[in-house]
Design a protein that fits this description.
This protein is mainly alpha-helical. It is built from three helices and two strands, in the order ααββα. It has one domain. Helix content is 60%, strand content 4%. The model has no long low-confidence stretch (mean pLDDT 88). Keywords: Carotenoid biosynthesis, Isomerase, Membrane, Transmembrane, Transmembrane helix.
Length: 106
């Protein structure tokens, strides 16, 4: 199994949960802005630290299981997990009854 296929499964689950939250109208414009901000920061940090760790030799990837697309030394597949987390976790929070994101309880 390639990392890209494994990532597709995680991203599909995240997208499904976010779609359910969106259909239940639990997502506001502030929610989307917050998720986008968190995603951008997480992707930048992933790029920085994954490249540093790969450069230091802490881990590597089997070339047979990656797509061959890289951001410097980090394979593009590394960026699917922060993407899935940024979509899935806030959507789950709204679905399990957490504070509606983008709104405050006064």
């Amino acid at each position: 199994m390639t990392y890209l296929l494994l990532n597709a499964v995680f991203l599909a689950v995240a997208a499904l949960v976010a779609a359910v939250a969106a259909l239940r109208r639990l997502i506001s414009a502030r929610f989307v802005a917050g998720v986008a901000s968190a995603l951008l920061l997480t992707l930048v940090l992933t790029a920085l630290f994954d490249n540093l760790m790969i450069r230091a030799g802490l881990f590597s990837y089997d070339p047979e299981h990656i797509s061959g697309l890289f951001v410097l030394l980090a394979p593009i597949e590394d960026f699917a997990y922060p993407l899935a987390a940024a979509i899935l976790l806030p959507a789950l929070w709204t679905l399990v009854g957490g504070t509606r994101l983008g709104q405050t309880d006064d």
